[in-house]
Structures are given as C-alpha cells and as structure tokens.
Amino acid sequence: MKYKVFIGIDVSKLTIDVHLHGIGASKTFSNEEKGFALFLSWVKKYSKQSEPAEMIICFEHTGMYSIKLATYLNDIGIPFAMLPALQIKQSIGIRRGKNDQIDAQRIAEYAWLHRETIQATLLPAKSILKLQSLLTLRNRLVCDRGGYEATWKEQKKALEGKEHKGIFQVYKSLIMNLTVQVKKIEEQIKAVIESDETVKLNYQLLTSIKCVGPVLAANMIAYTHNFTRFATWRKFACYVGTAPFEHQSGTSIKGRTRVSSLSNKQLKKLIHMVAICACAYNPEMKSYYKRRVSEGKNKMSTLNVIRNKIISRMFAVVNRGSCYVDLMKYAA
Fold first, then answer.
1. What is the C-alpha separation between 237 and 256, in angstroms, rounded?
2. Mean pLDDT of all residues in 188-197
3. Residue 225 — φ and ψ, nearest 5°?
4. Among 169, 195, 221, where does a domain finish?
C-alpha cells in the first residue's frame, strides 16, 4: 500500500516526540492513552485530505515503553511500523548531535525514504504478548539464581568456619525462593499455552522432537508469534544467528564463512544447548556429529549444522501439522 503521510515518533519513558515529514511540524505528548488521543487529533489538523489508512507511523521498538503506543494504534486500526533501533541507526549514515525531536525527525525521514518497502507491524495475539513477558521474567530469575549458586559455591570453598554460616544460609534461602518463583512462572506459562488451542497444538508438535523441551518450545512460539512471523526456517535462522554468511571482497579478503553476531542471543543460546544435548542423547545427531568430525570438519561448524537441523525440524512439524517421526528407528 502507498502511504501519503509519514510520521516519526521517538518514544521515551514519559513522553513521545512526534514529527510530520514534509510538513516539518513537531510536538511532544505524554506516553499514555490520553496523550495518544491528543497526538492523533493534532495529526488530523495537518492531514485533513488523508485517510487514517494512508498514514504510516514509524517508531523504534523500545520494549515496554513502546508497546503501549503499539497496542493503542493496533486497536484503532492505524498502520504503524515498530522497527529495531539499530536498523534505523545504521541506515541514516553519519550524523552529529541528537535529541528527542531530532530523533523523531530522523525516524520520519527513514519512513519516507523506505516508503516503497516499509511494512506495517502486526502485533501478535495477547496470549503471545503475555507469554513473552513471562518468559523474560523467567529468564531473569534463572540468571539471578545461577549467579547466587555460583557465588555460594565459591564462597563455601574460600570461607570456612561457623562464623560464615549465616552468609551461607542467606544464599540458600535466596536460591530456594527463586526456585519457587521460577516454578510459579512456569505454571503461568503452561496456563497461557493451554488457554489457546493453536498455541497448545504447536507446543505439542515442538516437544515431540527429540531434545526439544518445554523452555525452547515456549520461546519459539513467543518469538515467532506462533510461527506467523517468519515465512521459512531459513529466515528465522538468519534472525537467530545460525545462518552462515560469506566474508569475501575482491582478491585480498577471503575470510571464513561465519555466522553474524547480530542475532537474538537468548534464543540462540537455547537452541545451542539443545544441539549439545542432541549430540549426546540423540543417536542420529550423535552419529552425524562423530562422522563429520572424523572427516576433519570443524566441531563448531558441525554443531551449527545441527542447530539448523533442529530449527528446520521445528518449522517442519508445525507446517506439516503432525508430530516428529524418528526415521532412524525404521532404517534397515
């Protein structure tokens, strides 16, 4: 669709700074529903000839600060593009100086320059948004617990005697409390999955794959918006940082093919752990890993192939709508 009005918004904790491209008008509003309503009324004064569907509102994805605006625009049916900040930053070239109004102007310029290719963002279902929040909280609690466990273990080696018993009891209590909270979060995650039939079905399909457990399955559903965000598993592999890319230029630079550091590192970590588990407990992956390494292939490269195999299988079972079949059991 061809848009006529291009609006850039710089979202912060308390305010949103708005800029209308071509008109040059800028204004600041509060980052709440009342401010959003005033913002749209202000925009209509400058775009009386345009329908709401002919405008595109572009802003950076700033997590919980931008989700309120995105939800508001989604509910009233106004197109918006919520983009990664790095994508906009790398596209504007060399610039000096910044403030909220300048950032809003640059975002509006980005929307206008990419008017032929920019696509409106579609928010996932509310159950997916809730699942994302729960998984983020679970990951934070697990990381905190791991930090306390590591410190407790090291201090038990270094500090001896009854005078340090109180310190160890505090660590033990913290770890036990965090474990209880993690279990409560996992129960809520399970309840969200059970509440949506399509999410529940995809969850069951994913966990039918060997070594793919509840945590990876839930994260896959959350980050892929229940497998509607990526057209193919290869695009997802690029997003998650397991797709290899060439590093070559002219005759002087002939580097190794390697994966990009621009990735979803949390999801990549989970897939990597599953790949390691598959190499140890999945007979098919174990034999493949040993055979490829014995041929002189790099171990990390082989592990990355297995990561991509797991990704392709997850997308395959969801697209096919049937559980994973272990063909190795039927091999002659």
1. 19
2. 95
3. 55, 50
4. 195
